[in-house]
Amino acid sequence: SYELTQPPSVSVSPGQTARITCSGDILAKKFVYWYQQKSGQAPVLVIYDDTKRPSGIPGRFSGFISGTTATLTISGAKVDDDADYFCYSKESSDNQGVFGGGTMLTVL
Amino acid sequence: QVQLVQSGAEVKKPGAAVKVSCQASGYTFTSHTLHWVRRAPGHGLEWMGWVNAGNDNTKYSQKFQGRVTLTGDTSASTAYMELRSLRSEDTAIYYCARDVVGAFDYWGQGTLVTVSS
Q1: Is B53's pLDDT higher than 90?
Q2: Which of A75, B45, B102, B111 is the right S-S partner for B6, CB 3.0 to 4.6 Å?
C-alpha cells in the first residue's frame, strides 16, 4: 500500500503563517494535490500539480515540494482558513489514489 | 456551470448493499473520469476508485476491491457507486469528484450512508 503522512494538527494565530507537510515516497515521482474541507462541506481543491493555485483560491495559499515532502503554506492565515487539509497523490504503476491522513488547522 | 448532484441519504442494515448516484451537468460527461471518495466519522478522506464512462474503464482501491462497483450511464450523464456487504465501518459521507488531469476540481454535495441494525 502507499502512504502519505501528515501531522494530525497545526495551530496558529490569525495573521501567522501555517505550514502543513505531507510526506511519501510517491511524491518524488507524482504530483501532489491539496484539498481543504470545512465542517459539513465538500472538499475544495486549493493546490494542484505541487505548486499551482486554482482560480478563486486566495494568494495566501501556496505549495512547495522538495524530494518526498510537500508543504502547503498559508501566509497570513485567517479564521476562515480553519479546516481540515488533505494531501492527495496517486501511485504511478497502478494508478491507485491515496490521501494523507489529514491535518486539522486551527486558527485562533 | 459544472455540477455534480448526488442522490439522497441512505440507511442500510449490515450485509446489505447501497447504490449512490452522481448526476453530472455542464460538461461532456465522457470527457472526464469520476472518482469516489468517502469520509467516515472521525476519519479522513479515503479514495475508493474511479470510473471512465467513455470507455467503461475502472480502477478500485485495493481496500474495496471485490466489494465495490463503479459504473456510468452515458445516456443519463450519471455515475454510480455500489458498495456491498455493508458493515458499520462503512457509515460515511460518500462523494463523487470530477478529475481534470489528476485534480478533483468539482465535487458532489455528498451522500450520507448509515449502516445500522
Answers
A1: no
A2: B111
Tell me if chain B has a CB within 8 Å of the CB of A96: yes
Among the partner-chain residues B46, B62, B109, the one whose CB lies closest to the CB of A42 is B109
What are A26-84's pLDDT values in tens digits? 999 999 999 999 999 999 999 999 999 999 999 999 999 999 999 999 999 999 999 99
What radius of gyration do chain A's Cα atoms show? 13
In this complex, which of A1, A48, A90 lies closest to B62 when CB atoms are compared?
A1
Beta-carbon contacts of residue A80 (< 8 Å; ≥ 6 apart) = A107
Rounded to 5 degrees, φ, ψ at A79 are -55, -30
pLDDT given at position B103: 92
Interface subset of B 31-90, CB within 8 angstroms of A: 35, 37, 39, 44-47, 49-50, 59, 61-62
DSSP-derived secondary structure for B29-94: GGGS-EEEEEE-TTS-EEEEEEEETTTTEEEE-TTTTTTEEEEEETTTTEEEEEE-S--GGG-EEE
With a cut of 90, say whether residue B58 has pLDDT above it.
Answer: yes
Q: Which three cell numbers stand for residue A44?
A: 475544495
Cβ(B108)–Cβ(B6) below 8 Å: yes
